[in-house]
Each structure stands twice: as structure tokens, then as C-alpha cells.
Design a protein that fits this description.
- By secondary structure, the protein is mostly helical.
- The protein is built from four helices and two strands, in the order H-H-H-E-E-H.
- It has two domains: about 45 residues, no CATH class; about 45 residues, no CATH class.
- The protein has a two-stranded antiparallel sheet.
- The radius of gyration is 16 Å and the shape is globular.
- It starts with a helix and ends with a helix.
Amino acid sequence: MAANERDGVVHKQPKTAAERIGVASVCQESLKLTIPMLVDSIDDATNKAYAGWPDRLCVVDRDGKIAYRGGPGPGGFRPDEMRQALEKLLSASP
């Protein structure tokens, strides 16, 4: 948190979905992210369902099922495994 305070990246904990989306938008713009971002609902349903803490890399297929779930990060990150899962899904796409 000290680094965030030093860099002026401090936000109040969002209490509504709109506030959470606003914080995510600031993050996306500040970091110049061009990939689509998804924002969890205010009740953290996705985080609870997929156990994304600590950081975790996941691939969710078109049916909403987990196609790949990596180990807890950052030590459990296996980008090559995730890439293979994505390529497999994309090659099966119509």
C-alpha cells in the first residue's frame, strides 16, 4: 500500500458496482491496457467461485466453465500452460 500512496493510487473501497467499475476504468486508462477487462460484482461472486486469491491465471470457456486454472501466483503462474489452453479453445471455435 505504501507504493500506491507514494504514487497517488489510492481509492476508497467501492460500495457499489458503479464505483467498482469507475476504479477499474481509472486503472485501465492509467496503465493503458488495451485488452478487455472484466469487473467482479460488488459481492465478489466471481472471486469466491474461482478462488482468485492470491493472484491466479484462469481461462473461462464460452460456456462459463474453467478451461484452465493455474496455481497461486506469482510462483504458480505458468503462462505457457495458459497459452496452450487458450490456443486449444480458439482452435475449437467455429
